[in-house]
Amino acid sequence: MLSPKRTKFRKQHKGRIHGPAKAGTSLNFGAYGLKAMEPERLNAREIEAARRAITRHMKRAGRVWIRVFPDVPVSKKPLEVRMGSGKGAPEFWAARVAPGRIMFEVDGVPEAVARESLRLGAAKLSVRTKIVARMEGL
After folding, report:
1. pLDDT in tens, 45-57
2. Largest CA distance in the chain
3. Nearest-angstrom CA–CA distance, 1 and 17
4. What is this structure's pTM?
5. Cα-flanking dihedrals φ and ψ of residue 129, to 5°?
6. Considering only CA atoms, which of 34, 49, 48, 54 is closest in space to residue 97?
7. Contacts made by residues 114-117, CB under 8 angstroms, sequence distance 24+
8. How high is the pLDDT of residue 135?
9. Any idea what the Cα angle at residue 77 is, between residues 7 and 51, rounded to 5°?
């Protein structure tokens, strides 16, 4: 699973995801992509599950690019622990995804295979998505 090698600080504030994505909104590598339609935090496990689903359906042909990286530590307190006594230990890593962000890109396979593999990958994510294609001739 994806996680940073090292970070400056062990814990982070929760924060909010406001407005549309500022960057990463266009296809840069592949011909087809999976675009987020709502703000959400994506778990590192979700990203890995989606990647596996996409590559498995493509039968390892073509190429897959992951355009999001889980760099936000999400902390959680143990069950049945009383309030107070500080913030919990980091539980997992998450990526903040704003609406319009391209999360995965695919190339080197026919359109039908690419669309189906991205659809299967989208089923593993906790965010509403849309499959986008590169406009030819641009």
Report:
1. 999 999 999 999 9
2. 61
3. 23
4. 0.91
5. -130, 170
6. 34
7. 114/31, 114/32, 114/58, 114/62, 115/32, 116/57, 117/53, 117/54, 117/55, 117/57, 117/58
8. 77
9. 55
40 - beta bridge partners?
Answer: 97
Measured CA to CA, the distance from residue 134 to residue 138 in angstroms comes to 9
Q: How far, CA to CA in Å, does 129 sit from each of 13, 25, 38, 104?
A: 26, 13, 8, 11
CB 49, CB 124: distance < 8 Å: yes
- Which residues have a Cβ under 8 Å from the Cβ of 105 and sit 6 or more positions away? 27, 28, 29, 30, 32, 33, 34, 64, 65, 67
Query: Contact, 47 vs 92, CB < 8 A?
Result: no
Over the stretch 96-130, which tens digit does the pLDDT of each residue have?
999 999 999 999 999 999 999 999 999 999 999 99
Residues 6+ apart with CB under 8 A from 68: 24, 42, 47, 95, 97, 101, 103
* 137, pLDDT greater than 80: no
Strands, E, within 3-128: which ranges?
A: 32-36, 40-43, 63-66, 72-76, 89-97, 102-107
Q: Which helix (H) or strand (E) holds 132?
A: strand 129-133
